[in-house]
Amino acid sequence: MMRLTIIMGAEQKMLNEIDRLTEISEEYLQFARFPRLELKPVSVNDMLSKLTKFLKKEMFQRNIILGESYADDLPEVLLDKNQIRQVFLNIFKNSFEAMPEGGRLCISTEVSGDNVAVCISDTGSGIAEEDIQKIFDPFYSSKVDGTGLGLAITKKTIEVHGGEMFCESTVGVGTTIHLIFQTKNDKGEIVG
């Protein structure tokens, strides 16, 4: 009976490793072959609100307090909803991992000129000043089992949408990710 348990444990370890390798392979492929955009007008506020509701139980279990402040007058933006949803999920996942003992996650949106600005802040461990620019480089990771593709893909996704992404962080205080989405093109035409 003990031998059977050991064999079953080894099989589960192999299955877990296969799942991990599959996930890494999918990240590599996504980085190499960026999917075609399916742009539609999207309410960033609605998307963020739905995601935080979806993650409410996980945040409770992780002892993370959520603060949300969404601008009332936020225009819709032309986005690929699935890809931007994945961007937000990746940023949230990184914030959760940076706060293993719990903390505070704050999300805000605002109109900034012809842009929609999203700010996602956590009270996690923070990032050293010399590492802030590296976090968006492919294959750079401070995590033991990280591939270094998550934030590289996230930033590439924002840029393919004509947006910008940057980070501010202080070790021991937390990290803020800023996302900027255009609501008008170079000709001043509304794109949302």
Mean pLDDT: 81
* Fourth CATH level, the homologous superfamily of the largest domain: Histidine kinase-like ATPase, C-terminal domain
Q: Report on the biggest sheet.
A: 5 strands, mixed
Largest sheet strand order: 2-4-5-7-6
**Counting H and I runs of at least 4 residues, what is the number of helices?**
5
Please name the CATH topology of the largest domain: Heat Shock Protein 90
Approximately how much beta-strand content do the residues carry?
Answer: 15-25%
Beta-strand segment tally? 7
For this entry, what is the oligomeric state of its chains? single chain
Uncertain stretches: 28-32
CATH architectural designation of the largest domain: 2-Layer Sandwich
What would you say about this model in short?
This protein is of the alpha+beta class. The chain has five helices and seven strands, in the order H-E-H-H-E-E-H-E-E-H-E-E. Mean pLDDT is 81; it is low at 28-32.
Descriptive labels:
192 residues, alpha+beta, Heat Shock Protein 90, 2 domains, five-stranded mixed beta sheet, two-stranded antiparallel ribbon, 24% strand, globular
Report on the structure:
The chain has 192 residues and is an alpha+beta fold. It folds into two domains: 1-33; 39-182, Histidine kinase-like ATPase, C-terminal domain (Heat Shock Protein 90), CATH 3.30.565. Helix content is 40%, strand content 24%. It is built from five helices and seven strands, in the order H-E-H-H-E-E-H-E-E-H-E-E. It has helices spanning 2-32, 44-54, 56-61, 81-98, 150-160; strands spanning 40-42, 64-69, 77-79, 103-112, 115-122, 164-170, 174-182. The strands form two sheets. The protein has a five-stranded mixed β-sheet with strand order 2-4-5-7-6. A two-stranded antiparallel ribbon has the order 1-3. A hairpin with a 3-residue loop joins strand 6 (164-170) and strand 7. The longest helix is centred in the first third of the chain and has 31 residues, at 2-32. The chain is globular and about 45 Å long.
